[in-house]
Amino acid sequence: xxxxKTKVMTNSIKTEIKVNGKILEYVEEYVxxxxxxxxxxxxxxxxxxxxxxxxxxxxxxxxxxxxKAMNIGLKxxxxxxxxxxxxxxxxxxxxLTQLHRKKxxxxxxxxxxxxxxxxxxxxxxxxDIRRRTKLTDILIRIDQQKWRWTGHLMxxxxxxxxxxSNIVTHWYPRNGKRSRGRQYRRWEDELKLTAGPNxxxxxxxxxxxxxLEEAFAERHTVIRDIL
Length: 227
What we know:
This protein is mainly α. It has three domains: 1-32, no CATH class; 41-136, no CATH class; 142-166 and 185-223, no CATH class. Helices cover 56% and strands 7% of the residues. Strands 1-4 form a two-stranded parallel ribbon. A two-stranded antiparallel ribbon has the order 2-3. Helix 1 runs antiparallel to helix 3 and helix 6 runs antiparallel to helix 10 (206-226). The longest helix is centred in the middle third of the chain and has 22 residues, at 138-159. The protein is globular and about 60 Å long. This is Endonuclease-reverse transcriptase. It comes from Pieris macdunnoughi.
């Protein structure tokens, strides 16, 4: 164990922990496998970090993305292969609210305007800009990856009940008292809206799960258009 890189995180009483004579440092949040782990506002911090990484990658390739000599088809390929995966990394485990989705959508619209050299004061509709760029919708990509990964997770977990991913997915805390206010959005809430309360059983049927993928990905697009 590298005590310099090992940190301790807890939501209870902090007690001194020593390893090889060195006291481990307590932290309020940390990054594990590229994702932020935190007790408070974890999703907000993760989305903010992903968007910042997306902009960093975009400006690193500004010679292509801002060039007027490059055709939009090449810019689209660069965005879909370099920037989009950077922003959606680890999205399979996200629990997104409408606010999170709006931030991600706003980021993509800002990138598209920058690619075309369009300013907000030009008052060009986002739908018209998307028709020109033909970029992959970031929210649809997130929903597709989450849906496919969930199906794979459920089918692989059915063969091995001792897998940690299976244990965490089915774990439901029953002790303690829920705090006041609206409950946090859970990872499975979106799945239930499309596949129903028995979504775990539905996921075991590969064909049926595949048929529901488009409905799951398009559902948020329809809601966004209405709002």
